[in-house]
Amino acid sequence: MTTQKRSFLSYIPGYHKNAILQIIIVFGTAYVTFHFIEAIMLMLGFSEDRFVSDIMAYVAMPSLPLLKGKVWTLITYGLVDVGFWKLVTNLVWLYAFGNLVQTMVGYKQVWPIFLYCILAGGIFYELSQLIPGSAFAGIYYVYGCQAGIVGMAAAAITIAPTYKFYLGDRFSIPIAVVGGIFALLMLLNTQMHMSLILLLVGGGLCGFGYIKLLQNGYRPGGWMYSLISTVERSVTPNAHAAWMKNSKKRADVLRKMYEPKQGISQKNIDEILDKINQRGYNSLTKDEKETLFRAGKEDK
Q1: pLDDT for 34-65, tens place per residue?
Q2: Which part of the chain is CATH 1.20.1540.10?
Q3: Which long-range contacts (CB under 8 A, 24 or more apart) does 6-15 make?
């Protein structure tokens, strides 16, 4: 018996069943798009402030007083990262934790966890500004997927608290240690701004809560994929219905060609034509082919 060594890439799910890859592509596309727009605007003589006011202001999450009329930014802020190395670092962390979540609970849970955590982080950030004190003052614009990644990390640790990341055959790092290092780096990145810290807390709590709901039999993200499936069915042609429609047309044409004659009943012809539609001409017996030939033969 011979064995064939599988490539590492063969273990990576395809695009349609790899939500982590989809998220990475979304961020990469957004990064290129925003920098392309910025470059065009600068070439046309517009200032950096104009790019912020005309483009980023409608995507990034503003402080609480400016949120009215831009509620959608509670989601869109988490889908944009304009710093290259910050983006790369975030995506590495996303892959580390998200791939584990995808393996343990399936790819259909990844997008819901990610988006819910971004939304929860945004809500925590905005509500924190209602707390008195300068430490909770909002930043003019906030963007980045940190809340989503923190939520994914919390989800991964909740699912598999004893999991280990292996770096080679023998050396491994417990997920709790990796999570602690990640949390420390995220905390330092906030520069100890309390509203930003609460943004991360909101994402983490949401990730933890989502997994707990899954473990108790709930499917909080099921509606997202049901909606996508409904939209896909509405815009995708029904192949079976089209085949049946064409089969009916073909049968009608054949029936006109083979009208009853020479003592052959309509029932015999219908049965033979139905058999052709279902199984093909080669499924006919010799007698059935002869009957069909006699029915279609013109009278002399």
Answers
A1: 899 999 999 999 988 898 888 888 999 998 98
A2: 13-234
A3: 13/102, 13/107
Superfamily of domain 13-234: Rhomboid-like (1.20.1540.10)
C-alpha 220/C-alpha 116 separation (Å) is 10
**CA 201 – CA 185 distance, rounded (Å):** 14
Rounded Cα distance between 191 and 207, Å, is 23
Q: DSSP letter at 161?
A: T
Q: Which residue has the tokens 């499917």?
A: 219
Cβ contacts of 213-219, under 8 Å, gap ≥ 24: 214/105, 214/109
Interatomic CA distance for residues 259 and 73, integer angstroms = 68
Count of other CB atoms within 10 angstroms of residue 227: 10
User: What letter would DSSP give residue 137?
Assistant: P
DSSP 141: E
- State the pTM of this model: 0.72
